[in-house]
Please model this.
Amino acid sequence: QVQLVESGGGLVQAGGSLRLSCSASGRTFRRYTMAWFRQPPGKEREFVVGVNWSGGSTEYTDSVQGRFAISRNSAENTVYLQMNSLKPEDTAVYYCAAAPSWSGRIYYTADEYDYWGQGTQVTVSS
Model:
């Protein structure tokens, strides 16, 4: 079992920044692909960004490319999401997710991920 706990959400004005953290505990964190998903109000959960187990490969959805950055610190069992130039359309509950992946593959669909955090609210005002 892997337990994930997100933190760092909040209310920010458009153009501002936030950094989300996802702390993992339980089984070894090392061989897991990690990702951030988000669920805007009234919409489906969507992939935002993922990082493979080594941190050497990342994938971003087009709408956040160049504004968001994912990183992982395996020694601390933590994944970060730095969000810059935030827009009102970034408003959502953000979820951290983990999937075992010895191949290092990054998955884009929620059903590929076995473990989820409780979510953290990000609200961007215009």
Observations:
- The chain has a mean pLDDT of 94.
- Residues 56 and 120 are 26 Å apart (CA to CA).
- DSSP finds no helices and eleven strands in the chain.
- The two ends are 40 Å apart (CA to CA).
